Amino acid sequence: MPALIVLGLAGFGTGALIKKNNVATHLQVAQQLERDIAALDTTVGTLRHRVLQRGNEAQLQADFKKARLAWKQVQWLAELYFPEASKNINGPALDEFEEESGYVVPPHGFQVVEELLFPYDTTQHANLVTEVEILKSTMNRLKMVARSTDLTDSHIFDALRLQVFRIVTLGVTGFDSPVSFQSLPESRASVAGMERYLAIYEPFLREKQPNLATNLRQLLTKTQQNLTGSFDTFDRLSFITDCANPLSGLLLDAQKALEIPVFDEVRALRPDARTLFDENAFDLAAFGLSSSGGATPAKVALGKALFYDPVLSGNGQRSCGTCHQPDKGFADGLPKALTLNGKGNLGRNTPTILNAALSRVLFADSRVVYLEDQATDVVMNANEMHGSLEVAVEKIRAIKKYAQQFEKSYPDGVTSFNVRNAIANYERSLVSLNSRFDRYVRGEKTLLNDSEKSGFNLFAGKAKCANCHFVPLTNGTVPPTFDKSESEVMGVFTAPLSKKIDPDLGKFNLTKADMHRFSFKTPTVRNAELTAPYMHNGAYKTLEEVVAFYDHGGAAGLGLDLPNQTLPPDKLNLTKQEKIDLVAFMKALTSLPAQPAEKLPQLIGQR
Fold first, then answer.
1. Which of 63, 262, 270, 426 has its CA 20 to 30 A from that of 347?
2. What is the pLDDT of residues 196-246, one digit of tens each?
C-alpha cells in the first residue's frame, strides 16, 4: 500500500503525518520510545538493586555501563522533549548556579554515579545509594511525561540531527563519560538507537528515493563500525568528515524527501544547517536582541565608523579600536589593557571581539549578555572610556554626516540605544568560521597537515580541550543548542607555573557564590594565534605556555588547594610532539572576517 503523506497539526506544531494502515509514524516512534524508556528503567532498577545489595566494583560498573547504554538509546529524543529530566539523568557532575534565586543546585544523575563508581569507594556507599534512588525516581518521571507527550515527525527528525551534533561535540570528546571513558561504545549505542527509529520511516523513504534509503542505511552501519577502538587514538577528524557530516546531511535529505517540514525559526544553530561545520550554520539573530530590528550593511558601516571614533570617550582620545586593533586580532597585544590616562592597567587582558557575537555572555566575568550592554559598560567605565552615552548622543547629533546616516538606518535617529546597536552590529559582522580547519572538514582535504590533524584529535580527545572549548565554536557556548555559555575555574597563575594564583576573583565578584571564586568565561580558541598574551590576566605569553599549564592539570594538578577547580586536576601526560600538534591545530583555526569590497563611509572628521 502506498504511503499517504498529509500536513497538519500534531502536538508541538506543524509537521508531516506519514501514515500506513492508519498508523502514523510519529505514533510508532512514541510507542517505541515507551518501550525503550521501560528498558532503561529496568537497567537502572538493576543497578539500584546491585547498589543496595552492596555488589562488588566489577558488578556495579558493569550494571552502570548497561544502564548508560540504554540511556543512549533514547537520549536523542529525550533531550528534545524532556530537557529537564534529561539534565537530571545525564547532566555534568558540577554544581549549577541559579542566577535569579542565587541558589547553588547540586548535580544528580549518571555522571555523579559514575564518579562514585570509577573507582568504587565503599566509604561513599551512602551517597551512592542516594544518587541511584534519585536516578530511579527521575526514571519514573521520564516514563510519566513520555506517555503524555505528543510527537511530530518534524520534531523527530530535528532530534535525530541534533543527536548527530551531540555525538560530535559531547560524545566522542569524552564530555558525557569523563571518568569511565565509555564515550565510543555509548556513541555507538546512540547511533544504533537512532537507526531503530529510522527503520520506521525507511519503507516510506524507499518508495520515494530508494538510493537515498540505501545510502542512509549503509552510512548508519558504517558510523557504528567506526565508533570502536581506543579513546586516545580514535580518529575524530575522520569520523566527522566520513560519518557525522554525511549522516546529518542525509538525515536532512531524508526529511525533505518525506516532505516533512524543516523548522523555520530563529535559533543559534540553524534548523536547516546541513552540518555542524557549515559556514552559515549559526544564526547571529539568535544571539542578539530580538527588538534591535536586525543588522543592515548601513548599520554595520555606521557602527564601524563609531567603533574607531573617539567621540564616545570622555576626553575624545580613545575609541573602541584603541584596544581592539585589527592587526592584533582585535585585541591589543598587552598583558592587561591600559587605563584611559595610560598610567595604570584595567586588571584584565583585552579579549578579542572576533566571533564574540557567538557567545551568550560577555566579559571575563560574564557580567552582561548582549553586545549593546557591553558597549554601555565600556563607555561608562571611568578607567576605560570615562564617557557618557547621553553626552555622546548630543555630540553625534551635531555631526551632520552621522545624523544623516542615523536617519537612514533608524526611524528615531540618534539615540543611546541606536548608537550602541550600531556598534554591536559592526561587532557581529566580525564573525568568521572559515579557517583552514573549517574548510578541511567541509571537504578541502589538502588544507591540514598531519600535525594539525593530530592536534585536532588531541584537542577533542586525550587533551580534553573540547570539554570546555566546545567544537565548532571552541568557546564555552554549550552544544548542540548553544543557549548558554559557561565559565570555568582553572587556578590561573600570576605567571606560568608560578604556583601563585592570580588574585582576581572573576565571576565571584558578580554572584558572591563560592563556586565562582576564580571563575572566568571560557573564551574562543579561534584566532588565538593572533591574540597573545593569554588568560584573563595576560600572564601567558605563548600558546606553548598555555598548553603546559593544562598538561599539569591547572592549579590543583600542581598541588595547590583549589577545591572548586572545574578543570580536572589529572595530568594529561602529553608528549613533546603532542604539545606541538595541539598548538599547530589551534593556529589552523585562524580566520579573519572578510571585509566588504566597497569602502565603508569614512565619517570621522566630516563634521
1. 426
2. 999 999 999 999 999 999 999 999 999 999 999 999 999 999 999 999 999
